[in-house]
Amino acid sequence: MEATSTAPPSGAAYRNLVLATVGFTLTFWAWDLIAPLAGDYQDRLGLSSFEQSLLVAVPVLVGSLGRIPVGALTDRYGARLMFPLVSALTIVPVLLLVVVRDSYPLMLVVGFFLGLGGTTFAIGIPLVNSWFPPARRGFALGVFGMGMGGVALSGYLTPRLAKHGYALPFTVVAVALAGYAVLAALLLRDRPDRPVPTASLAERLGAAGRLRVTWELAALYAIGFGGIVAFGVYLPTYLKTWYGLSATDAGTKAAGFALVTVVFRPVGGWLSDRIHPARVTAGALGLVALLAIVQAFDPPLDPGGTIALLCMAAGLGTASGSVFALVSQVTPQPQVGSVTGIVGATGGLGGFVPPLVMGAIHSAKDSYSIGFMLLSDLALAGAVYAYVRMRTVRPADAEEPVRAVRSPV
After folding, report:
1. Contacts for 363 with CB less than 8 Å, ≥ 6 apart
2. 49: Cβ–Cβ under 8 A, 6 or more apart, which residues?
3. pLDDT (average), residues 31-42
4. To 10 degrees, the CA torsion angle through 83, 198, 66, 170?
5. Is residue 281 a contact partner of residue 323, using CB atoms and an 8 Å limit?
6. Lowest pLDDT segment from 62-66, 115-119, 165-169, 241-245
7. Segments in 163-211 forming alpha helices (H)
8. How far is CA 53 from CA 154, 222, 241, 345, 355, in A?
9. pLDDT at residue 20 is higher than 90
């Protein structure tokens, strides 16, 4: 049976939350190993800007899309198997990056398999969701979501470790993943009475895809988390191009933006435990819409632009946390992994369109204002939809039943 809203979380719930968050952080560091060294690869291999971008994008795209089958597999086999398995398998491409660093085609192939590290998001969400009662799920899912800080960890540590030897960051990550895989295999546990679907993978993904709420949540997450990904990819370029910052200063400010999004993700979950998550999502996206308009008028970076960008980071981080609190409320427990996979994939992919749009607009108009106004329109539409429609959504258990059995206690 699902934990009741009045029962406090058990010690096992917190242990699994910590283990899942650590695993999410480490695998996300592995997932992002190529991007911090992209400049080195460009110089070493004589890559064009497009080739460099493709090298960075391949693991991100694969990791985003891979969440769909991995989420469905987690529904069936549980996080106790999937987390250590995916962590251990990710070691292979991490170490192969040392071997193939002088071959661009082989780097692309290894980068494809490195995308596996980005799929663990769809493993941890159903695990945490099952262990925590509804009244505490928002905060717990927000804490787990802080594992996306593994990308920021990679951005800071990977190039610094590489200065002491190219292979060092890959060795450190491989050892950390191996240690975590062993630890997770020994200590990680699925909730004993979790419902286990018996339908095939295709049937379960089809059932999740036929839920209207899956695509509503995916659209909201594409705005919230997609915005985080988009700024993570494009903010350094924007700051260098528009405000004339050095690469170091732009990178530092971008890291500050990322840190704020990580901190505010559990805030979004915590608020969602006290206020309906649809209201939290609406308020957070409304803030983003307002501040995007402010930034569209090109305020001086100090202090106006900095304040606007950091507050947008807070809004996007809050929305990312509250959307998954909403997932836990409106998704049948046996389908949480499948729905999470689709929603998470959409969020990751949602971050790749805005940088292309911003770059194209700047090339055509020598301005970023139109891009920020489009962001404002999109965030406002998400805020209105969350407030008007998502406040009234009820648990979707009856919308698309999936055959399930109870695992033995």
Report:
1. none
2. none
3. 81
4. 20
5. yes
6. 241-245
7. 168-187, 201-210
8. 18, 21, 18, 20, 12
9. yes
What are the Cα distances from residue 161, in Å, to 8, 153, 168, 175?
42, 12, 6, 14
How many of the other CB atoms lie within 10 Å of CB of 384?
A: 14
Q: How far is residue 122 from each of residues 82, 104, 141, 347, measured CA to CA in Å?
A: 10, 30, 12, 12
DSSP 100: S
Q: What is the pLDDT of residues 279-332, one digit of tens each?
A: 999 999 999 999 999 988 888 888 888 899 999 999 999 998 888 788 877 777
Query: How much is the pTM?
Result: 0.76
Average pLDDT, the chain: 83
CA 378 to chain centroid, in Å, comes to 19
Residue 396 token pair: 């979707």
3-state SS string for 274-321: CCCHHHHHHHHHHHHHHHHHHHHCCCCHHHHHHHHHHHHHHHHHHHHH
Closest CA to 28 of 86, 106, 102, 110: 86
- The closest alpha carbon to 232, from 290, 298, 148, 297, belongs to 148
Q: Six-digit token pair at 316?
A: 């996007």
Q: Which residues neighbour 225 within 8 Å (Cβ) at sequence distance 6 or greater?
A: 316, 320, 323, 347, 348, 350, 351
The mean per-residue pLDDT over the stretch 69-81 comes to: 88
How far is residue 83's CA from residue 189's CA, in Å, rounded to a whole number? 10
User: In sequence order, what are the beta bridge partners of 197?
Assistant: 404
Nearest-angstrom CA–CA distance, 96 and 31: 13
Task: Identify which of 293, 306, 340 has the alpha carbon closest to the alpha carbon of residue 320.
Answer: 340
CA–CA separation, 197 and 403 (whole Å): 6
Distance CA 232, CA 355 (A): 10
Q: Is 395 helix (H, G, I), strand (E, B) or coil?
A: coil
C-alpha to C-alpha distance for 88 and 328, rounded to whole angstroms = 28
* Residue 11 neighbours by CB under 8 Å, 6+ apart: none
